[in-house]
């Protein structure tokens, strides 16, 4: 089952690690800024490919010499025409007095950067409801960011809901 929202965002039942589209594809997800990889959608990514986790851990480990920070994005090739976008938009891994770990400003910055990559590659973007698992985000706050930063820049987006 598939249905587009009024903005053109396509929402389908399925697996975001198996994007249903022709041409170049980017699978987007949210990472934390603490080097942790082990809960949520990353587990599905790791079952499909080893490269995204390996790249994320190296990026984090070498953060003193690179751009690893909230708002940063790295594309990791995982197959012919498919890349995974590791997007750093979660501060820490636990809820605390500061609220959930998601950082909406970082989500927006990541999506803006992702739009540039997608346009350059001629790619569509595929994702679960990013930031709404362990990061603790609310889809009603993230969806408008996806619509503004990706759809608003002419990038096609499909969101995958699992059963």
From TrEMBL:
GO BP field: peptidyl-glutamate ADP-deribosylation
InterPro entries: ADP-ribose_metab_enzymes, Macro_dom, Macro_dom-like
Catalytic activity reported: an N-(ADP-alpha-D-ribosyl)-thymidine in DNA + H2O = a thymidine in DNA + ADP-D-ribose
Residue ranges of every copy of the Macro domain listed in the record: 1-163
PANTHER family: ADP-RIBOSE GLYCOHYDROLASE OARD1 (PTHR12521:SF0), PROTEIN C6ORF130 (PTHR12521)
Stated name of the protein: Appr-1-p processing protein
UniProt source species: Nocardiopsis sinuspersici
